[in-house]
Design goal:
Elements: H1 2-34, H2 41-51, E1 56-57, H3 58-65, H4 69-81, E2 85-89, E3 97-101, H5 103-125, H6 129-148
Antiparallel strand pairs: 1-3, 2-3
Helix pairs in contact: 2-3, 2-5, 3-4
């Protein structure tokens, strides 16, 4: 009975930590969306994916950003209006639209990547050597587990 009670307490502590972590992620996403002139987290995911390929379809971008295609289309409307991306009919399949970063868009993505890298480094620097080792292992492990959900 004591083992079961401890297992329940351990599970409850894990669930609390999980909720705390994902709550912090949601709040971060909300703060990013409120910052004047900043990209939303979804826009960042979309543009980073686009920066790693010469051009992508709207569907591919939606998948990379973790949003529905209509949401990606709405995001692209604003990004295109702001001169960050261009859209054109695909040369291979006229049913598809391909999206590319403009030079301004590429500069924006590079700037954003540097800012994110600096924030990650600050988190890394705040950890002890043992915590860093655990974090690397656990982050990879959680990524794999989340893919299975």
């Amino acid at each position: 009975m004591a083992v079961e009670t401890q297992a329940n307490a351990d599970l409850a502590a894990f669930e609390d930590a999980w909720a705390d972590f994902f709550g912090a992620m949601r709040r971060l996403k909300g703060r990013a969306a409120q910052e004047e002139g900043e990209l939303s987290l979804s826009q960042q995911f979309l543009l980073v994916a686009l920066s790693e390929a010469p051009s992508m379809s709207v569907g591919e971008l939606a998948l990379a950003a973790g949003v529905a295609p209509p949401t990606a289309t709405r995001m692209l409307d604003g990004l295109e209006r702001d001169g960050i991306v261009t859209r054109a009919p695909s040369a291979e399949d006229r049913r598809k639209v391909t999206v590319e970063l403009t030079e301004e868009g590429l500069k924006l993505v590079r700037r954003k990547k540097r800012k994110i890298s600096a924030r990650r480094k600050a988190v890394y620097d705040s950890l002890s050597a043992a915590e860093r080792e655990q974090a690397v292992h656990l982050l990879h492990r959680f990524a794999g587990l989340l893919e299975e959900l």
